[in-house]
Design brief:
By secondary structure, the protein is α+β, with helices and mostly antiparallel strands. It has one domain (5-204): 3-methyladenine DNA Glycosylase, Chain A. Helix content is 13%, strand content 28%. Strands 1, 2, 3, 4, 5, 6, 7, 8 and 9 form a 9-stranded antiparallel sheet that branches. Strand 4 (80-86) and strand 5 form a beta hairpin. Helix 3 crosses helix 4. 46% of the residues are buried.
């Protein structure tokens, strides 16, 4: 089932947690690919210095102010495309950055895309690293700026609920930013090898949607 717009029209931290275990699908002309979302980060409003909405409305960040359930794709450092799901009601700028996937469908196409323009062979990528990192997963799925503002409740680029088991999650600080680093707004599946390294993660109960922290035990 494709996630409805109402799924995204909620507080961003709830959406971030609930995206873990959902499936990101790109039905591309050169091959369908999908993966289970296992890591995501929340960016919330103009008061969040790490959110693209921090300076107020601009042509670039306009999707953040639009209706929930749209894709916000941008070029990061002139190198990587990053894909976000816009959250909260229109006019409340926020989004969830998708950071890592467990490959599900179209693994051959993912390997081919990851290898293009590099010296690595498609078979050189391990399953766990294939979609680890927000730039790697967009390359693997063939997502680019052309997908900015696409409706995630449509067919080409979408997020599905396939009834997969609820995953235990960890909450920790966002990475790759210099501002707003104190917010523990990165959520990840606690048992996934595809997740980026957690330097200061915390484990949350399965029912938590607010990122309540408890000490992680080994």
């Amino acid at each position: 089932m494709i996630l409805p717009r109402t799924f995204y029209a909620r507080p961003t931290l709830q959406v971030c947690r609930d995206l873990i275990g959902k499936v990101l699908v790109h039905d591309a002309s050169d091959g369908l690919a999908s993966g289970i979302i296992v890591e995501a980060e929340a960016y919330i409003g103009e008061s969040d210095p790490a959110c693209h909405a921090a300076p107020g409305p601009t042509p670039r960040n306009a999707p953040l102010y639009g209706q929930p359930g749209m894709a916000y794709v941008y070029l990061n450092y002139g190198i990587h495309y990053l894909v976000n799901a816009v959250t909260e009601p229109a006019g409340s700028p926020a989004a969830v950055l998708i950071r890592a996937l467990e490959p599900l469908e179209g693994e051959e196409a993912m390997r081919r895309r990851r290898a293009e323009g590099t010296l690595r062979q498609p078979a050189a990528f391990t399953w766990a690293e294939l979609c680890r990192g927000p730039g790697n997963l967009t390359r693997a799925l063939g997502i680019s700026l052309g997908h900015n503002r696409l409706d995630l409740t449509g067919r080409v680029l979408r997020i599905e609920d396939r009834g997969l088991p609820v995953r235990e999650v960890m909450w920790g600080p966002r990475v790759g930013i210099t501002m707003g680093v104190a917010h523990p707004w990165r959520c990840a599946a606690a048992d996934s090898p595809a997740v980026s390294t957690f330097k200061a993660g915390t484990r949350a109960t399965r029912g938590s949607t607010e990122g309540k922290e408890i000490r992680r035990t080994s």
